[in-house]
Amino acid sequence: MPSPVRIVPLGGLGEVGMNCLAVEAAGRIAVIDCGVLFTDEPFGVDVITPDLGWLIERREQVGAVFLTHGHEDHVGALPFLLRHVAAPVYGTRFTLAMVKGRLAEAGITADLREVAPGDVRPAGEDSPISVEFIAVTHSIPDACSLALTTPQGVLIHSGDFKIDERPVRGPGMDLARLEALGQAGVRLLLSDSTNAERPGWALSESAVGPGLHDVMAEATGRVFVATFSSNAHRLQQVVEAAAAAGRRLALLGRGMVENFEIARQLGQLLEPGWMPVTADEARRLPPRELAILTTGSQGEPRAALGRLARDEHPELKVHAGDTVVLSSRQIPGNELAVGRLVNELCARGALVRWEGHPPLHATGHAQEAEQRRLIQLTRPERFVPIHGEYRQLARHAAHAAAEGIPPGRRHLLTDGQVLELDDAGARVLPERVRSGRVAISRDEGGAVEVADAVLDDRRRLAEFGLCVAVVQVSAATGAVLAGPEFHARGVAGLDGREAELRAEVLAALGEAVGAGGEARREALRQAVRRWFRRATGRRPVVEPVIIER
Ligand SMILES: [Zn+2]
């Protein structure tokens, strides 16, 4: 009997981001994508990765990693996986170009293997799974769906996609191949749910060009355009719109400079001889002859546009009469940061534009009609919505229902839930596997994991403050010689009540007089915490200090 196949989502089913999915057959594992989740989590957390413990515990079984495309929410957590798992990584040219920098930064050498659409690769030695790359359109070049040939038939993983019938460049989505697979029989379709709540068909990327042309032509000052630097086809349209309006173009932000160069080297930007102007040249140009491509469309304070908005950019300034185009969608969770950015830019006298007609942005994700089209083409026996918050997954499952996929064949999974396919059918296993979120802090020294206990301390410090309790005791008898004294930072409710707290602490220490040093410290901590909880309802971080004399 052919081996069962297990689908193990480790991230991206229940949130928009940290996409990571494992497919297991005959004790061998293929990993699809390994991304981060962007977060507005305060307290020094920059991104979230999926908990990769399940994969790391099975590192010997992981035969290969397959990347659908180069967005951070699909590849950003690769360094955390490849630190433990030595498997080859397959991706298209642009995808691997996006990955190389991240891996180099993390000091990781990986076995990167470039593929092109149409290529089929085994998921490791003695794995019964092989994977075919199929070209799709998305907001980054070289994106692919994957068709996995497994002991339980063909599974299609859509990756992120939209069905763009007028792409800026390239042959577009390989609908013929997907249809051919559908005719031959597809056991399971896993499909991108990001835009399941939007009806109709997504706007073509090429629909953004006219809007950019109008802004460039009509603006009397400089035009700043903020967009995702990996969206090479958007960059291309900005280049063309600027050129048509007689504007030279400058690039601001490290990511923009790097990705623009990658796009140019990989032939994703037309004009081969075209060069951006330097910041020096840009400052000398009349405002009407300059456009600037910049990072920071999500309100990131440290990105170029954020620094321009606060007038902290060393190279350029935003002046009254300049136009700023946010050629992007706000990632959920970034609304406040983007709002602050727009306020700051308006306060400098800039005209900020982000929507309108003609449009200045097009989504990279399929909407309802395209999602349903993919189901029609591939005619899957079963359906699992992926990439989305639960409500988007549920809506996508409803679209599958409307396409005739019956209830028992639509599987709404969340991270950690395993779907097992075998000759008898498919079922969600009762046991979840280890999954979850890991907070990461990125700084000059690289990326470090922030443990839950550390985050919990930071949250409590921010919310309730810190109280240090100091007591001097006799080394010989344990009797209190002086104190307790309380040194509080950021604590509310203690003023005028120290005596009450002191009495409670002394009573508790009296009971712990014969105990050892550590037990006495703990008794001191507990007494202070108890008083705060009872008297103020708050839970400051309490740091006990016992000095023996
Ligand atoms: Zn994407």
Describe what you observe in this structure:
The mean pLDDT is 92. The strands form five sheets. An eight-stranded mixed beta sheet has the order 8-7-6-3-2-1-20-21. A six-stranded mixed beta sheet has the order 9-10-11-12-13-19. It has a five-stranded parallel beta sheet with strand order 15-16-14-17-18, with helices on both faces. It contains 16 helices and 26 strands. It is globular, with a radius of gyration of 28 Å. 31% of the residues lie in helices and 25% in strands. By secondary structure, it is an alpha/beta fold. The longest helix is centred in the C-terminal third of the chain and has 20 residues, at 517-536. Helix 6 packs parallel to helix 7, helix 12 (368-378) crosses helix 13 (390-402) and helix 15 packs antiparallel against helix 16 (517-536). It has three domains: 5-200 and 363-450, 4-Layer Sandwich (Metallo-beta-lactamase, Chain A); 205-353, Rossmann fold; 456-548, Ubiquitin-like (UB roll) (Roll), CATH 3.10.20. Bound molecules: zinc ion. Zinc ion binds next to loops.
Helices and strands, with pairings:
Layout: E1 5-11, E2 20-25, E3 28-34, E4 37-38, E5 47-50, H1 53-57, E6 62-66, H2 72-75, H3 78-82, E7 89-91, H4 93-105, E8 112-114, E9 120-122, E10 130-135, E11 144-150, E12 153-157, H5 175-184, E13 186-192, H6 208-218, E14 223-226, H7 232-244, E15 248-252, H8 254-265, H9 279-284, E16 290-294, H10 304-309, E17 323-326, H11 335-347, E18 351-353, H12 368-378, E19 380-386, H13 390-402, E20 419-422, E21 425-428, E22 437-443, E23 446-450, H14 452-464, E24 466-473, E25 480-489, H15 498-511, H16 517-536, E26 541-548
Parallel strand pairs: 3-6, 6-7, 7-8, 12-13, 13-19, 14-16, 14-17, 15-16, 17-18, 24-26
Antiparallel strand pairs: 1-2, 1-20, 2-3, 4-5, 5-22, 9-10, 10-11, 11-12, 20-21, 22-23, 24-25
This protein binds zinc ion.
Zinc ion is lined by residues 69, 71, 74, 138, 160, 364.
